[in-house]
Amino acid sequence: MEQSYELLPEQFQINPSLPIYEQFVDAIRGRIVTGLIPPGSRLPSVRELAAGRSVNPTTAARTYQELERIGLIVTRRGQGTFVTLEEAVIAEARKTIMRKAVLEFKIIAESLGLSAEQMLNFDKEDSNDRQ
Amino acid sequence: MTDNNRLSVPYNEPVAVECQDVRLTVKKKMILDGISFQIPTGSITGLLGPNGAGKSSLLRILAGLTLPDSGSAQIFGKPSGVDRLGVLSMLPDRANLPGWLTVEQWLGFAQGIYPDWDADKAEQLLLQLSVSTEVLISAMSRGEEARLQLLTCLSRKAPLIMLDEPFTGVDLISRERIASAVVSELADGARTFLIATHDIREMELLFDRLILMGEGKIQGIEDVDTLRRSGKSVESRYREVFA
């Protein structure tokens, strides 16, 4: 089956000062959750991923291991690796991203001496003012 | 996933290269001053250091082309030497291919020299590295010749590949092609790479281990994942050690 999506955007920038497989996992998880990589899609092989990005094959292998551990991808013996068809798993991954975003939001709010709610109220007033 | 699992645990695999207290003096000048390290099978190790650090001398000792004054160098558990040439494929620094041959003639020649030559692999690499077969080697650009040399090196089935400055005089696109070819080679089996270079940027995503060498001594041996976990890149570590 021809691949009709991009596993990672062509211009994906790797930060060489952080573990690379974590950057790959975050990016691919985001793309699965938002549907950019549809459920059931066949993923490139570890080797193709590594060669395509010129990263160590271990990095590519670890990326898939981690995605497999959280259930977002499944390996079918002799057929390859696919995005899960289980909506519940994708929904759970979506929650993980949301939790992380909310946590970051709260940390910023806290550093400003505000609650998350005060920040959201501010946003409401601010956008009313601008209209 | 058996393939993936195997790739992720290279440190449990046998040792591909081992040096113990290797010393070399040339004309009373200390070139290698007590070099000791190990490389596990399946690793892509970067041998990094400034010019004159002793990297090429070390590779020549591993290849059995130079004898150390003292100390031992072992390849897959046996001492380096001419009889170990069959298990390693080396891309030497400043190599010259016979300019009067065409690429096709050279490849025919290489097939005759190397008992472990893989003609199918050579075909595949010709495409991957975009090397055309009818050209005279003397008419090739530096980048093309570098790609042909790498092709020659990778078309053997030897389990240990040593590359000495594979990027010297090579343009950006060729560098990317070379890096990508190296990756797909590694991923298809248990090959071990030892790559001496000072062009860190093109290669830093490839390495899983670093051997930092300066003034004939080991200045550091690093696990690249551990470095990144502490917020450092290969390049920043290199600067820390050598700046």
Please give a handful of descriptors for the protein shown.
heterodimer, A: 131 residues, mainly alpha, Arc Repressor Mutant, subunit A, 2 domains, three-stranded antiparallel beta sheet, 5 helices, 8% strand, elongated, B: 243 residues, alpha/beta, Rossmann fold, six-stranded mixed beta sheet, four-stranded antiparallel beta sheet, 27% strand, globular
In short:
The complex is a heterodimer of chains A (131) and B (243). Chain A is 57% helix and 8% strand.
Structural class of chain A: mainly alpha
CATH topology of chain B: Rossmann fold
Give the overall shape of chain A.
elongated
- Report mean pLDDT of chain A, rounded to a whole number: 91
Largest interface: A-B, 25 and 33 residues
Structural class of chain B: alpha/beta
Count of helical stretches of chain A: 5
Regarding CATH, which class of chain B?
Alpha Beta
Overall tally of structural domains of chain A: 2
Share in helix of chain A: 55-70%
Strand content of chain A: 5-15%
Oligomer: heterodimer
Structure notes:
- The complex is a heterodimer of chains A (131) and B (243).
- Chain A is mainly alpha-helical.
- Chain A has two domains: 20-86, Winged helix-like DNA-binding domain superfamily/Winged helix DNA-binding domain (Arc Repressor Mutant, subunit A), CATH 1.10.10; 88-130.
- Helix content of chain A is 57%, strand content 8%.
- Chain A contains five helices and three strands.
- In chain A, helix 1 (20-33) crosses helix 3 and helix 1 (20-33) packs across helix 4 (87-111).
- In chain A, 24% of the residues are buried.
- With 243 residues, chain B is of the alpha/beta class.
- Chain B has a single domain, classed as Rossmann fold.
- Chain B is built from nine helices and ten strands.
- Chain B has helices at residues 2-8, 55-62, 103-113, 119-128, 142-154, 172-187, 200-203, 224-229, 234-242; strands at residues 15-26, 29-40, 44-48, 70-75, 78-79, 88-91, 160-164, 192-197, 209-214, 217-223.
- In chain B, helix 4 packs antiparallel against helix 5 (142-154) and helix 5 (142-154) runs parallel beside helix 6 (172-187).
- Chain B is globular, with a radius of gyration of 18 Å.
- Classes of the chains: A mainly alpha (131), B alpha/beta (243).
